[in-house]
Amino acid sequence: MGKMALHMNMLRIFCLFLLASLVLSGHSAGLRAQNFDTTFQYRYTIPETIGFAYHSLAKWHPRFEFWIAKQPAYIEARPSQKGTIMVKEKERLEMGYVSYSTEQKEISIPVNALVTLEPGPDQTTKIRLELTDAQGPYLVFEIGQIWIAVILNEPDYFFHAPLSTEERGRLTAYAGPHNLSFNNMIDLVLQPISADRSAPLQIEGVDAWLMMADIKALRLRDEQTGALLWERLPKENKKDEKDSVFW
């Protein structure tokens, strides 16, 4: 077995274990994000950017005609306009795909989360985040005729974390002194790292192709002012915390 095949098998085994151990009960429609990524020359939806990432990592060129056929503008266009739309949209999508494949950009995704503050001993507090539009530590996107499940790497480190005294003060003031749980948008910054094209896996009632992504940042902001209230970075990017009472 070659190194690539071994890596793909390890990815599938890890994803299956992760989903089996962490998926919650009940049904969810999953994340159907339609926000725009504006880091390219053209505008691309988050699902389109996820599609670029998956196909780039899987070495599997996208069938853009299927993506375009699902667009409301194409569906609602007159027959005489469809050919022009198809040509222009293929050009737009090809440019986005080539740009992503070359630069491997991080992808920022706004998601809904339930935020819970958990008081501990000696006035310590932890923050717990639960994605409200997903059953587990993954996001599901539809693009064209396929579904892509983005499996989040090391979710526990990012979604259940200690707070500094300053962070606790900001979040308590934002939520209210007697409100330990609240719903809020969070910014989830991802770096896709590997994709499995051997076979889809059924997730949330759909056959989804798997892509693993590292979390590069998790940010919670004031929804009124946009001020940063809390941020969680990968371990290698965090400042020295040896003096923190939580470690």
Walk me through this protein's architecture.
- With 247 residues, this protein is α+β, with helices and mostly antiparallel strands.
- It has seven helices and ten strands.
- The protein has helices at 3-22, 46-58, 64-69, 72-76, 79-103, 155-159, 165-175, and strands at 36-37, 44-45, 107-119, 125-131, 138-143, 146-152, 160-162, 181-203, 206-221, 228-232.
- The strands form two sheets. Strands 3, 4, 5, 6, 7, 8, 9 and 10 form an eight-stranded mixed beta sheet that branches. A two-stranded antiparallel sheet has the order 1-2.
- A hairpin with a 6-residue loop joins strand 1 (36-37) and strand 2.
- Helix 2 (46-58) packs across helix 5 (79-103).
- The longest helix has 25 residues, at 79-103.
- The protein is elongated.
Order of SSEs: HEEHHHHEEEEHEHEEE
Helical coverage, percent range:
25-40%
Global mean pLDDT: 82
What is the 3D shape?
elongated
Strand content: 25-35%
Global structural class = alpha+beta
Strand elements, count? 10
Distance between the termini: 43 Å
Biggest sheet record? 8 strands, mixed
Low-confidence stretches: 3-8, 16-40, 240-247
CA-atom Rg in angstroms: 20 Å
Count every helix, treating DSSP H or I runs of 4 or more residues as helices: 7
